[in-house]
Write a structure and sequence with these properties.
single chain; 3 domains; 541 residues; Metallo-beta-lactamase, Chain A; 35% helix; globular; Rossmann fold
């Protein structure tokens, strides 16, 4: 029984864990790295074609985003996830593939004029659709046998619709060990979805630490805050523009606005329109509505029982086509516009900023984290002007940030989740946090719970049966861009070489599967491989 840490080690994104048990090889999560990358990640130790299955905690791209790339390199096994996660991945992975292809098309159109090599996307829509068809979805709280000696159960993590912590029971040679992967642990008292559920037994725990060094502070009254912002914006004849993440945060905003309208908290602007201008957000909102009884909290379910949709109301209008989006800017009455992306770096929100940012009557309301270097962060830090579509736009609108909104548990919530285990697990592995935060939170687990806690680097391998390290790695800091392939030609060559390595690993897998084949066929197979080796051996060059 072996566990190898690959991604989200001393970093927040790119969650990926490799396991071997009961004769099977599989992953828990296969996420894309987002934002700055500080440490080098080790490669998957086997060819993707040799993986038997993947277990997925939730749909966010930093946990699921590399599944299509895995498929493109030969993975054909099932992906086990909750039903809501499967439905969200259907839209989110297609959206990610569209972005990959769009970026490649844009780069190639620009690069062709400059005589540059073609840019190859990380994966294509075909790859995304292929892996989406591989999803095997199951409900919360049901134990599922995925192979002889391997059982899994999804427990609601309260982070996103369908998000889960995963319990894994592994049996091998008469020994059984239970390992729990926390996934992303949710914040308490979020709208719509349930609080995180606790798990009480485990031998080992792999645990996130996103906010492992801080608290969210006192919870604001979101309804009152949002009501006040809408009121003062509309009173001066302006629009409220909300850059919002399409999945999760947009639906929370709709939940708040429905209540504001029901309670008539905005005076003098009865029936004000609310536009959701994001095809992805609109699809996600439909999926939210389809998972009321398996994912919603009691407050939201009680509304459903009364015949009330918690995220729908009079005046809600959805924008699908680009013409729909453009038409919003010709609506003269004051309105709320919710659009993606949440950090203002792409998507339709940039068009709405161009039309609204210059006007002092308008308000731009940020309801999520704004990463360093993004347009949203620049606006929050007081930029007086920004560039949009090559045009300089003055910042005249009121810029506001709603405090405290987070889908992640803070340090107190994390400690509460970890402390719910009746018997302290043999070891906690702390991942999915910034470099120093993983170490700080591991120390907190040891000090406050008396737990053995360790923050591994990528490549660290652990024997679950003996409870000992097979290999401990130190973090390999990534050098600056000058040491990485910088030209499109070099990048293309690097990707081609990685694909060749992947094919080589698959060849080894095919060879192993042919054990027991008649001698004549094996000799023919060997001759064909030898011929290829003779043709491509470059040792004399």
């Amino acid at each position: 029984m072996k566990l190898v840490f690959l991604g989200a080690t001393h970093e927040v994104t790119g969650s990926c864990y490799y396991l071997e048990a009961a004769g099977k090889r599989f992953l828990v999560d296969c996420g894309m790295e987002q934002g700055p990358d500080y440490y080098q990640n080790q490669e998957l130790p086997v060819s993707p074609s040799e993986l038997d299955f993947v277990v997925l905690t939730h749909a966010h791209i930093d946990h699921s985003g590399n599944l299509p790339a895995l498929y493109s390199k030969g993975f054909r096994g099932p992906v086990y996830a909750t039903e809501a996660t499967g439905h969200l991945c259907d839209i989110m992975l297609r959206d990610s593939a569209h972005i990959q292809e769009f970026e490649a098309e844009w780069r190639n159109r620009k690069g062709k004029r400059q005589g540059k090599e073609a840019y190859v996307p990380l994966y294509t829509m075909e790859d995304a659709l292929g892996v989406i068809r591989s999803f095997s979805c199951c409900p919360y709280d049901r134990i599922l046998t995925v192979a002889d000696g391997i059982r899994i159960r999804f427990v609601d993590a309260g982070h996103l619709l369908g998000s889960a912590s995963v319990e894994l029971w592994l049996s091998e040679d008469g020994t059984e060990k239970k390992i729990v992967f926390s996934g992303d642990i949710g914040n308490h008292d979020q709208p719509l979805i349930r609080d995180p559920q606790y798990i009480h037994e485990a031998d080992y725990v792999v645990m996130e630490s996103t906010y492992g060094d801080r608290t969210h502070g006192e919870r604001p009254d979101y309804i009152s805050l949002l009501s006040e912002i809408i009121q003062r914006t509309f009173d001066r004849g302006g629009n409220l523009v909300i850059p919002s993440f399409a999945v999760g945060r947009t639906q929370e905003m709709l939940y708040f606005i429905r209540q504001i309208k029901e309670d008539q908290r905005v005076q003098g602007h009865d029936g004000f329109p609310v536009y959701v201008d994001s095809p992805l957000a609109n699809e996600a909102t439909t999926i939210f509505s389809e998972h009321t009884y398996d994912c919603y909290d009691e407050e939201a379910i009680e509304l459903i029982r009364k015949g009330i949709n918690p995220i729908a109301f009079p005046g809600l209008r959805t924008s699908i086509t680009s013409d729909d989006s453009k038409a919003i800017n010709f609506v003269e009455e004051s309105k709320v516009i919710i659009s993606a992306s949440g950090m203002c770096d792409a998507g339709r929100i940039k068009h709405h900023l161009k039309h609204n940012l210059w006007n002092p009557a308008n308000t731009i309301l940020f309801v999520g984290y704004q990463a360093v270097g993004t347009l949203g962060r620049s606006l929050l830090e007081g930029a007086s002007e920004v560039k949009l579509f090559g045009e300089t736009v003055a910042v005249g609108a009121e810029i506001v940030q709603m405090p405290g909104i987070s889908g992640h548990a803070d340090v107190n919530g994390l400690l509460e989740w970890a402390g719910a285990f009746g018997k302290t697990p043999e070891r906690f592995f702390v991942t999915h946090g910034e470099d120093s935060v993983t170490e700080l939170f591991a120390a907190r687990l040891h000090e406050e719970l008396g737990a053995e806690a360790y923050a591994p680097f990528s490549g660290t391998a652990f024997d679950l049966k003996t409870g000992s390290f097979i290999r401990e790695m130190s973090g390999i800091r990534l050098e600056k861009a000058e040491k990485m392939p910088s030209s499109p030609k070099a990048q293309k060559a690097a990707r081609a070489f990685q694909k060749l390595l992947s094919v080589g690993q698959r060849l080894i897998s095919v060879i192993r599967k042919n054990e027991g084949t008649p001698n004549k066929d094996l000799e023919k197979f060997a001759r064909e491989i030898q011929s290829l080796c003779d043709r491509w051996d470059r040792t004399d060059l």
